Amino acid sequence: MTDIQIRDVHVDREAEMRLFQRMRDGGGSAHVLLIEAPEGMGKSALIHAFWLDSASHQRARVNLKGAALSVYEVLTSIARQLHPHGLEGFHREVERLLDESPVSVERAFLIASRMTIHAGSADQDRRRLQQQRLTNLLVGELERANPGFQPVVLLLDTYDEATEDVGRWVTNHLLSAVLPLRWLTLVVAGRSLPTPDYLDDWWVLHTLELLRLEHVRDYVRGVRLALSDEQIQLIYDLTDGRPLEVATQVGRLFAKSIQRRGGLDA
Ligand SMILES: Nc1ncnc2c1ncn2[C@@H]1O[C@H](COP(=O)(O)OP(=O)(O)O)[C@@H](O)[C@H]1O
Ligand SMILES: [Mg+2]
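Above: inputs. Below: predicted complex with adenosine-5'-diphosphate.
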């Protein structure tokens, strides 16, 4: 088993997977899942599991961690992933907005919100209005492109490391724009997340728990490491079931066992 395969072992999180599948496959009114947990608790691993589980659906995912991502780029990326060859109206409007900006500094400001350009508050308001308009435009086109209400999955990871601009857009515009789209399952993962303060039947805030001893055992078995119950207990005690630490410790033992076996074979 190679290192890549070790990363493919995913344990526990059945409740989260059921919750996600229920939203995606149309049970109930909730269709926005907010996954909140500290660093190393397995948010990205879970997003990846949702992604793999949705291979037969229309799906898009964006890691907001990219510090240079602007709202325009996030929207464009979502549009391209969901409809690689469609949504021309949306793409035309993005281009138009960018071309409309009179000076190149402003164009840069529109694209790269990370850049420190000191725009006045009027510019800021205008930019936010444009972002909102573009968001509504994309949502409208997605609706038109989906007359049969097929399930669509949108996964946003690492909300906490998004730029201020993108974070504000998710909170103020994206969440409310997707509210009426019951066929769209939106998952947002982050260390702390905004919770909409209006209505509450369409979104669920879920926190991730530590892994239990049995999950550490599943993990050790998953990577096909021959450890005794005592050794598994030891890993559990050392890591408290924190996924990142479990993965690190088991990964080390796994590497050692490969080394030893290599040594024996030589
Ligand atoms: N449920 C899980 N089963 C197995 N390994 C996991 C699980 N959750 C996380 N890991 C591992 O723990 C490490 C940290 O997980 P990650 O998803 O990056 O955490 P986060 O995004 O919350 O910071 C990764 O190496 C990942 O593969
Ligand atoms: Mg992560």
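Residues 113-118 have pLDDT under 50 and may be disordered.
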